[in-house]
Specification:
Radius of gyration: 11 Å
Shape: globular
Distance between the termini: 14 Å
Helix content: under 10%
Largest sheet: 6 strands, antiparallel
Structural class: mainly beta
Number of strands: 6
């Protein structure tokens, strides 16, 4: 799984920043994440063979509370 930080919601999209040395951005439809993820949350994302979101988990809430909130997409 890949780790991304939910940087912000902008228009119809969630802007994710990959947590590695590249810091690449990924745009995801807001409706896929808004129900359980907030800006600043660290997410673990699994992609299917076509590159679509398969599973998203909140690894760490922005407040640092931790805990996992799985969401299968």
């Amino acid at each position: 799984m890949n780790k991304y930080k939910l940087d912000r919601y902008e228009g119809s999209y969630a802007i994710l920043i990959q947590e590695d040395t590249n810091k690449s951005e990924l745009l995801v439809l807001k409706e896929r994440l808004i129900a359980f993820a907030e800006a600043g949350d660290l997410l673990s994302i699994d992609f299917d063979a076509m590159g679509n979101l398969k599973e998203v988990q909140v690894v760490e809430k922005e407040s640092g509370r931790g805990g996992i909130k799985p969401s299968c997409l």
